[in-house]
Amino acid sequence: MGDASTPLTLEEARYLLRRTGFGGAKPRDLEQVVGLPRGEAVAELLEFKPSRFAPRGGDSSEIQDRWIRYMLRVRHPLQEKLVIFWHDHFATSALDVTDTRMIQQNKTLRLHCTGVHRSRSEQVDFMLPLRGNFKDFVKAINKDPAMMQFLNTEDNTKTSPNENYSRELEELFCLGVLDFGGQPNYTQEDVFQIARAFTGWRTREVRGYEREAYFDIDRHDYSAVYNATRGPKVIFKSTGGFLPAGQGRSFTVDGEGAPEIDAVIDIIFDHTDSQGHNTVARHVTRRLIEYFAHPNPDVAFVDEVISASNFDVDFDIRELLRAIFIDDRFYEGVAPIAPGVRKSVKFPTDFVIGTLRLLGIRPRRRDLRVNDSGSGVVRGYLRDMGMTLLEPPSVFGWNWETSWLGSTNVQERYQFAVDATRASGAGTASVRYSKLMDLTLTDPVTIVDTALAVLQVDDQFSGADRQTLLDYLGPGPIDFGDENTFNRKLRGLFALIIQSPAYQVY
User: Fold this and answer.
1) What does DSSP assign to residue 329?
2) CA 118 from centroid of its chain's CA atoms
3) Count of C-beta atoms within a 10 Å radius of residue 195
4) Is pTM beyond 0.90 here?
5) Can you give the residue ranges of every domain in the chain?
6) What do you get for the CA distance between the two ends of the chain, in Å?
7) Which of 28, 162, 273, 506 is the most buried (most CB within 10 A)?
8) 384 three-state secondary structure
9) CA 127, chain centre distance (Å)
10) Which segments of the chain have a pLDDT < 50?
């Protein structure tokens, strides 16, 4: 069994950088990781300072383009992989929320993506210790203006409590409907009572595009007025493992009014499931493993990384990720596609951004074009593959895994592979193949091996798949000095690799 001291093999190092970034790493960066102990390599990946970047723009399309441009150039791609994860987890859509609020939320996700957030005063001295965890993150989401608009917190008043946010807080963000034993984690009564805690919260403009949450005492549900008809402000009488049984927990322990929404979170984070495990820790850990490793992780995998990171006590996202990335089960995906090997389908962002980074393509023009066709805009490729940034299809976020591979979506992936490998011209973007490989190579076997290595899937192709590529090139010698051969054979070879099943998955 491997652990933090286990040296990374070439295949493991490549897999780690591929899963925590977009498309893997440059050869020189990969060389620096190979042979390092897992713990040391992972520590370096995780030790990035929170970025205050926000993709400002005049409309949703411009905001998407600026975020895409940032992903293409970001020095710490793991940060953006986490921002995408939390954007899906705390799903909020620009179709229902003003653009300025979406910009602010994107910045909030980035600041809290590992649970770490610096206050404005802390920004002055970067020697100060970092603080923050998933509980603090959820409390920040409670007051996020985009979330407050999307799930109607601003419409939640004492006369008409709105349950939208309180339901998703339990169902999606923290607990899940059912625990690992198939038992309910909460009741409808819990949803209603938590909704009472959020009555009275509104937003106001404070600076530039930013808004802040504030508490309106006149819109809040107070016990003196409503307890007779709505009952006491108590939750989890029948779930959560709170003792004595049936009594539940009051969320007015710190006083009524503004403190209630933080008290609710504190109680939720004390919730234990029917098997005696912390419910929030299990729920969030499983989702992070599914995102970074593979779907349907074993319960043992979930529980053991929670124990190793103390996540059920500290809720430190960074420590949880560290435990996941050094675990043997994380590296199960290193093996090529085969029965019993659990793989994960690349998100469209990973597929598109990763390919552009590997090919060295910097889309040009303000709208980030790969070519001059009407469909050559990067955000358009993402949209057609089923992932419009800032617009998850519902509060449940996007559907992952095989849902990314519907017939239309796959066709768009294939088309992108063709367009990207043929990108050329001063007006759009170009693949400089001479920067990727030696164009004087003439031996088909060497050419195939080189192209696979450039796209970092040489360890994922079977002998039969390699032979398919060799058959495509035909017998040597190959002359890439001939323009027709270069365009048809070399560009086509790269497109075929990108279209392959081995490249579509991790």
Assistant:
1) G
2) 21
3) 22
4) yes
5) 10-47+277-334, 151-275, 433-504
6) 22
7) 273
8) helix
9) 28
10) 120-130
